[in-house]
Write a structure and sequence with these properties.
There is one protein chain. The protein is an alpha+beta fold. It has 2 domains: 4-225, P-loop containing nucleotide triphosphate hydrolases (Rossmann fold, 3-Layer(aba) Sandwich), CATH 3.40.50; 237-358, Nucleic acid-binding proteins (OB fold (Dihydrolipoamide Acetyltransferase, E2P)), CATH 2.40.50.140. It contains 8 helices and 21 strands. It has a 6-stranded mixed sheet, with helices on both faces. Strands 13-12-11-14-20-21 form a 6-stranded antiparallel sheet. Helix 2 (92-102) packs parallel to helix 4 (136-148).
């Protein structure tokens, strides 16, 4: 299946520029997720690839074919929307067949394709029903089936699971990934849900304000965020960020002084980032990974079963930590706790630009 390439693509709606000369290459057969806050330009990007919007400047290529000026029907792509766009008066069979019949395809071939897809998606017993008789998850499978029968070069998904409840979303994520492995079709998937992005994508493209902030694997995005925006957007609870300075090889801020061996010649104002799972109760982390201990007051404990999210106060600054349930006996709201940070998982960001200065798993920095 062909890949996709965007070269200096911009989009304006009147005086508003929603995309700013983005460059993006999507490998053939990959499952690439565009993620970011509302209004970041991810859906606009998808619609430009589909041909539903016109490019203001730049080029879009599918394979080696320049499709920038082509109509949607000439691009051989299939799109699945947030709203399933099923025809309520038609059966499931006829909904799936609609696009093929519009192309004047032979009915024998249409039937073969529909039965194959119905078996793949578990729709065999539902082909005679109408959309109003189906659950939300079943309707979504019909919409996906309608895209698959077209046998496109490229699948485009625009927040297809956002109308489903949490349990159905998890189930459909698994189904979509199995389908992708089976079909191998290049896929671009748009979501605002960073958890969805992390669990589904081979590659993730993080966007904000019409620009691409970072492209990488889920691990790269999580462990080596390019800047503060990416660091805070990806992860739940989000990364803790402490304002301070580097002086004499130590971080000073939020009432702390933490020596950072291996910091090199970095000095001045800095933002220290640490994810909630990298804050530990003193004595529970291997000594070679642990920072100097510090005291923080327990504010709130939110139990989530086998683990809890604990909010601590460092003076006027709040930080969140993920704590194992079995360790909660030593904590009580309103009491003080002794904490350490994992040296191997700290991030430093420039206080002005927000760009990463030094990050987790980089060049043995922070190791004692």
């Amino acid at each position: 299946m062909p890949g996709v390439r965007l070269e200096k693509v911009s989009k304006r709606f009147g005086e508003v520029r929603t995309l700013r000369e983005i460059d993006l290459e999507i490998a053939d057969g990959s499952f690439t997720v565009l993620v970011g806050p509302s209004g970041c330009g991810k859906t606009t990007t998808l619609r430009l690839v589909a041909g539903l919007e016109t490019v203001s400047s730049g080029r879009i290529l599918i394979g080696e074919r320049d499709v920038t000026a082509l109509e949607p029907r000439e691009r051989n792509v299939a799109m699945v929307f947030q709203n399933y766009a099923l025809y309520p008066h038609m059966t499931v069979y006829d909904n799936i067949a609609f696009g093929l019949r519009a192309k004047k395809m032979d009915e024998t071939e249409i039937r073969r394709r529909i039965l194959d897809v119905a078996a793949m998606l578990g729709l065999g017993d539902l082909l005679a029903r109408r959309p109003g008789e189906l659950s939300g998850g079943q309707q979504q499978r019909v919409a996906i089936g309608r895209a698959i029968v077209r046998e496109p070069n490229l699948f485009l998904f625009d927040e297809p699971l956002s109308n489903l409840d949490a349990k159905l979303r998890i189930g459909m994520r698994t189904e979509l990934l199995k389908l992708h492995r089976e079909l191998g079709t290049t896929t671009i998937y748009v979501t605002h849900d960073q958890e969805e992005a992390m669990t589904m994508g081979d590659r993730i493209v993080v966007m904000e304000a019409g620009e691409i902030r970072q492209t990488g694997t889920p691990r790269e995005i999580y462990f080596r965020p390019a800047d503060l925006m990416v660091a805070r957007f990806v992860g739940s609870p989000p990364m803790n960020v402490l304002e301070g300075r580097i002086e004499g090889g130590a971080f000073e801020g939020a009432g702390l002084r933490l020596p950072l061996p291996g910091i090199g010649n970095i000095t001045g104002r800095i933002l220290l980032g640490v994810r909630p799972e990298d804050i530990h109760l003193a004595g529970t982390l291997e000594p070679e990974r642990a920072s100097a201990p510090f005291s923080a007051r327990v504010e709130v404990i939110e139990l989530l079963g086998a683990r809890a999210i604990v909010t601590f106060a460092l003076g006027d600054t709040e930080i969140k930590a993920v704590v194992e349930e079995r360790q909660l006996d030593t904590l009580g709201e309103g009491t003080d706790a002794s904490l350490v940070l994992d040296h191997h998982r700290l991030h430093l960001f420039d206080a002005e630009s927000g760009e990463r200065v030094l990050g987790a798993r980089q060049a043995r920095a922070f190791r004692t």
